[in-house]
Design a protein that fits this description.
It contains ten helices and eleven strands. It is of the alpha/beta class. The chain folds into two domains: 66 residues, no CATH class; 247 residues, Rossmann fold, CATH 3.40.50. The strands form three sheets. It has a seven-stranded parallel β-sheet, with helices on both faces. The radius of gyration is 24 Å and the shape is globular.
Length: 354
Amino acid sequence: MPRLDRLQSIWGCRAMALRAMGHVDRTGFRNRTSPPTTWLLSSRHVPHHALARLALAVAAYCIGATELATTGPLPRIADGVRRSTDRTPHNHDNRTGEHSMGPLDGRTALVTGASRGIGRAIAQRLAADGALVAVHYNTDEASARRTVDHITENGGAAFPLPGPLGTAGDVDRVYQRLDEALARRGLPITLHVLVNNAGHNTHGSIHTVRPDDFDHLINVHAKAPLFLIQQALPRLPDHARIINITSAATRVALPTSLAYTMAKAALQSLSPTLAKELGTRSITINNIAPGVTQTDLNKHRWETPEARAQNAQHTALQRVGHPTDIADIAAFLASDQARWITGQTIDATGGSHL
């Protein structure tokens, strides 16, 4: 090829590569009139570093300089499924303003019972992955604010959301306050991740369980999640995520927690029942069933070395669980990587009572 023609070809390929990058920004494609190779590669499909590599690959292909091409395979785009291979944790440096994309960037999550324990760990993890988190709590405002403070101090975004569950009008109040909080931030009334975690236990065997205790446990663990999901549906976009925190008590008999076990079993049955219907919108719904975990709910099972050792010996991994063990599973189920899992219960007990 004559030198002038070759330079013109290189310049043309450079322009093509720059257009492939320039038509796309962090919020997605700018208009549908852009070339298909542009809008298909919006940031909803391919991370920015991949776009840069693609641009180099286009130029390299045109001029025959294969050494400029990608150093690894580009993410595959198929069937219109939103994908991302960017595993970099969400991080925002308030001093420099630098921001790196997280797997839940731009999404809103509601975690019930997020002021302490497993709920707090899930809220913190989802925020670390980029979500704006509504930290729901019953009455412990101070603990909820500590959760929010921890998130914001580490570069995340969150706000407290009061709303006792198990009472008349509970779900209406939660969503009214959620909608108001999002509107104040100038955000759409959209919820991408719902985590039904709130709960407590009132001990009682078949001989001692009381009707009032039973009713309240059912209201908090089963009725509230059902209607939280029902009222979430208009707010949930396609590909949203619903995660229910159940319990290993549905598998391992705990005679002194009879009503609690029944309530958690009701919640656990909700996921496979709803999965098929919600699947028409690619919304997934799954359960996580923790075992003995270091939370206030079962403090008596791990507070002393003797109690901890006794409960650890029942697990294959020879320890009791930590809230972050559950939070990591929730983060996976909330992500795009869990798009093919629905209607399932993940046993998060470390192999307890196998």
